[in-house]
């Protein structure tokens, strides 16, 4: 057993941990990162090859299974498996509905398979209770993130957008109260829209469409993708595989920030090092150390020893599942830890456009309908943002395989081969062409209420290191489900208006529920939020607005686990902005 | 019993007939990837003895039929031959497994026709014809430049060199 000493110890080398490490390292603060997974590999070819030859192209497909640091996996989310603790990592045996989001435990974290969407939250997302009497208010406001704080030259959102290299234009992003600091420009110009985007943008603008009193407007999505090449990065080539892996790293991932952190000379990391226990001194309200289990080989069970890391300040930057698991296993007395688990349940509707829109080209999503993210309707139902997919029915029905098999075998799983012809030759190619070039899907990211019963607790099941596995209890409230109903109505209205042939049908997803007389299916969005929420008191939250633990003054918990409400924006940009904030607080506390 | 070289040639002729692809695109003269060989090998490795015999019997239907013809360039199997094969209950599932190899780069056993057993190789994934029917590129493998997605793609015949079908029949 060895002892390591640093000024700041950070558990987790994903985007939050890497940002904090980089910011502190730049000030000469000695940082030690504790990462449960392997270090950054010299190239990503192994991962890309693994993706090409994987039968199921799931978020985790490019990444090797690590029996020492197991993770939530999409392959566990079938109807037959998701509640079977012998076949999964997350214990969902008692959960009413499946929690559908997954994560990676490796240097760079889940940014390896994020989409790149870098939306800001809306001002009203921070005061949902104040405005609509629903959920909670954040202890911070939009302006706390969007305007420079006293003594600072840049806002935290700006710092995050610069770190991620967000491509967008301010003119496109000023809606529903979003404002920017004076003279602000995004670090990179917006990416070009796809032909699908253009079809919807023009069609909906011409129709002057509205929905429940809101304009319906298509806008370009701010993206963590290179829209121009730099000395170190390629421009996006439209590989249409942001999830699960960008083969050319045109999409930002946290390994970029991690490399910069190391280049300060002040940041070091223990890889293949699983934080097993946070050592609490409840009398003095202090963390005194972190116990770490080491293993020698990420491909096989290979526990090799234990270490203790000691620091002045500790930062937990796992995710909304691993961080509360670690804190509960360490005996944190907080009443709120692990509760209020949220995602953006992801609802798909799909059809065929009246003319070819040529999907399967470009980044996975480049535009969305953001104008429905806020309105008086939030008194009654969940809001949503609408992602326009560029990947045809890949996610919706499992194409291109499903449609191809239908036309070859004379089946009709895709609902595009009603007379069950069996095609071959030139005719097969032309029939496939007719379908694939017109495929389209909406993806609704539905706001999820923070419900106290949706939680991460400790399972009686343990992992290969003997650590308790996370136990998930997850469901959707009526308020959230009413958002699904509105999403369905919205789809019908838009598809009808634009002449899109609706092909949505049940797919047998594990995530399924009935509401009223309608059946719905959903997936996870990969947005694990809420389980160590920020708030105004120890009684109702885990951290304060600076993300400092109420229970332990030298402990910070960063990541989207601090979100008190989900809003409808993909959480990465906001959690990155908050990580800059936490780093700034820690820096000042250490007198730098 | 035709030798392996002749079998491979017949396999290419059958594959061209099934896919509608020109022989030049299906199996170019200079062929560093050798998909036809990869797919032939996959069949041989994945099928039991009885089904391999069925493949041989199916190939008997396909020209060229003698060793003398083995040196002439292969021609796509004509629609008559393909129609006969697809009308034969013993051959049709095998023919469709071969068609799926080309379209999807994956092997679907004729006994479990909708469940793939493997992606043949990363080249097979990247070269599978389904991406070309989209006028697109394989997901995760774009050799196209930044911003290409905002323009209409090249026409289908720039992606697929298809032989005009004489009498398109449903199998």
Question: Can you walk through the features of this model?
Answer:
The complex is a heterodimer of chains A (592) and B (171). Chain A has 592 residues and is α+β, with helices and mostly antiparallel strands. In chain A, 23% of the residues lie in helices and 19% in strands. Chain A has 14 helices and 19 strands. In chain A, helix 1 (15-26) runs parallel beside helix 8 and helix 11 packs antiparallel against helix 12. The longest helix of chain A has 21 residues, at 478-498. The two termini of chain A are 32 Å apart. With 171 residues, chain B is mainly α. Chain B is 46% helix and 4% strand. Chain B contains nine helices and two strands, in the order ααααααββααα. Chain B has helices at residues 4-19, 23-26, 35-46, 49-60, 79-86, 92-104, 122-127, 130-133, 156-159; strands at residues 106-108, 116-119. Chain B is globular, with a radius of gyration of 16 Å. The chains are: A alpha+beta (592), B mainly alpha (171). At the A-B interface, helix 2, helix 11 and helix 12 of A face helix 1, helix 5, helix 6, strand 2 and helix 7 of B.
Uncertain regions of chain B: pLDDT < 50 for 5+ in a row?
166-171
For this structure, the quaternary state is: heterodimer
Task: Round the mean pLDDT of chain A to the nearest integer and report it.
Answer: 97
Number of strands of chain A: 19
- Mean pLDDT score of chain B, rounded? 91
Structural class of chain B: mainly alpha
List the helices and strands and how they pair.
The complex is a heterodimer of chains A (592) and B (171).
Chain A: E1 2-11, H1 15-26, E2 31-34, H2 45-53, H3 128-132, H4 142-146, H5 156-164, H6 170-173, H7 195-207, E3 210-211, E4 214-215, E5 218-220, H8 254-263, E6 267-270, E7 273-281, E8 286-295, E9 303-316, H9 322-329, E10 346-352, E11 365-369, E12 384-389, H10 394-397, H11 401-409, H12 425-436, E13 439-446, E14 455-462, E15 468-473, H13 478-498, E16 501-502, E17 512-515, E18 518-521, E19 555-557, H14 572-589
Parallel strand pairs in A: 1-2, 1-9, 2-6, 9-19
Antiparallel strand pairs in A: 3-4, 5-11, 7-8, 8-9, 10-13, 10-16, 11-12, 12-13, 14-15, 17-18
Helix pairs in contact in A: 1-8, 1-14, 5-14, 11-12
Chain B: H1 4-19, H2 23-26, H3 35-46, H4 49-60, H5 79-86, H6 92-104, E1 106-108, E2 116-119, H7 122-127, H8 130-133, H9 156-159
Antiparallel strand pairs in B: 1-2
Helix pairs in contact in B: 1-6
